[in-house]
Amino acid sequence: MNSQETESSFLENYNIHEFDIPLTSVDMTIFTIEDDTLKILLVKRAQFPSKGEWALPGGFINLKADDTLNDTVSRKLKEKTGVEISHLEQVATYGSASRDPRGWSVTISYMALISNNNITLTADESSEEVVWLPIEEIQKNYQLAFDHSTILAECYQRLKSKVQYTSLPINLLPNTFTLSELQKTFELILGYGIEKKSFRRRLLAADIIAETGEMRVGSNRPAKLYCPKSSSKEHLFQRSIEGPRE
Amino acid sequence: MNSQETESSFLENYNIHEFDIPLTSVDMTIFTIEDDTLKILLVKRAQFPSKGEWALPGGFINLKADDTLNDTVSRKLKEKTGVEISHLEQVATYGSASRDPRGWSVTISYMALISNNNITLTADESSEEVVWLPIEEIQKNYQLAFDHSTILAECYQRLKSKVQYTSLPINLLPNTFTLSELQKTFELILGYGIEKKSFRRRLLAADIIAETGEMRVGSNRPAKLYCPKSSSKEHLFQRSIEGPRE
DNA sequence: TATCATAATGTCTTTGTGACACTAACTTAG
DNA sequence: CTAAGTTAGTGTCACAAAGACATTATGATA
């Protein structure tokens, strides 16, 4: 290095491959609701390492194709689901020498919520199979590749805690829904029942949904259909939802 | 690729340098309180790129020295402050082709809280100067290197929102403190005054601090000294702190 | 037309917070 | 020695929002 060096001359001589740098990827926990069950998307790996094992969808950053991390994630999401994501949120980043046998690696995890409109899942060269599986069953009976069980657990935890004080579950439903459907979604994630009246008071006070004027007709009293207002996708409630008192 | 390939033969032939991978670093927003002011640590860069500009402390992962991301962060923290960190939390990860002139890069940002016990800051080969600066002044009058202004803003935002519903500010104080000192710390970060009685009720209900039995003597009525209980470093309050009513 | 199931609302109780007045304890000025 | 001043700490009421639970509303179906 000489004293005549400028920023541009420095950059001309800079070679990224001189250094040991970690592999960097993104991984996604994509939630949806199917058959009154919270499910996430898993892929069966078609390539080494961990070939044949179940894993979260994800992949390496493509330095040519992607301008930002969000581009990487959007590209991967489109590859698997081909569908518009309702909510996308970065959760955490994991890095260590041992989490991937190929070497020091870093992965950035994302949580995505989509409404299940009979999406057609598409496998590609990196995955033999792409399926929705109930999250509770994965946590009980599946051993995921790499540290994906940990990543999954942290994303699920994030979802569960955000459900206590935000309107996030709206992103798991279609564009119109009844209040009972919305409440059921909250309860599914929280793991306990909540009071109908309090729940509706919260929604009303938050002013985040609007009546569509239409009704959902079933074999009982029809229910009003609602749609989210623009601000509703992640509204923070003033207090968090409490479970039943003892 | 042949059909005889196994996981171990795959790994033998795997060369990380065949691929374009991004540079990966960590950056830290280290908060402390000095002279009743919230300050963070900045370094003046001694090397290209952005030589001479102010930046958040941080650096690249050392694949030989670090086993995990936390090792990288701990190492960097020790280099600059030489001090035990009270609270450390990953905040967000930024990646893009343009954020660093050396090429596609990813940085993982951390927020750290430490109590200011007259720490001696130490510069090293990568930084000419290491100083505590008031965060408000940085945001007004400083243009930081790379996207560090954005990273700083997001860490500050994280701190401010967590102060509303957790006991995080305890980590900015020494091991013993009075309730008034603690309240002042909350108010400093929140940016508004809070009610003494409600504040104390919350702390009592949370059961996160204990009387030491000692008193702080000044030129007025002496105040009881408290110390944190083990669970107190990030206790979640049942409701968030509200500002004054209109 | 009666029954049933779910939708929607009314209202009382409980809980925790903001407001604010009040008491307590110590230093300092005179 | 005493009164004034300042900060520490407590008592109490009003208010806001949530839980509990009863009640009414509205459709399908037998």
Architecture overview:
The first copy, chain A, is an alpha+beta fold and 246 residues long. Chain A has two domains: 19-162, Nucleoside Triphosphate Pyrophosphohydrolase; 164-228, Winged helix-like DNA-binding domain superfamily/Winged helix DNA-binding domain (Arc Repressor Mutant, subunit A, Orthogonal Bundle). The first copy, chain A, is built from six helices and nine strands; from the N terminus they run αββββαβββααααββ. In chain A, strands 1, 2, 3, 4, 5, 6 and 7 form a seven-stranded mixed beta sheet that branches. The radius of gyration of chain A is 22 Å and the shape is elongated. Chain A starts with 6 loop residues before the first helix and ends in an 18-residue tail after the last strand. The relative contact order of chain A is 0.15. The A-B interface holds A 5, 7, 10-11, 14, 16-17, 19-24, 48-51, 60-61, 63-64, 66-69, 72, 90, 92-98, 101-104, 106, 108, 238-240 and B 5, 7, 10-11, 14, 16-17, 19-24, 48-51, 60-61, 63-64, 66-69, 72, 90, 92-98, 101-104, 106, 108, 238-240. The structure holds a DNA duplex (30 and 30 nucleotides).
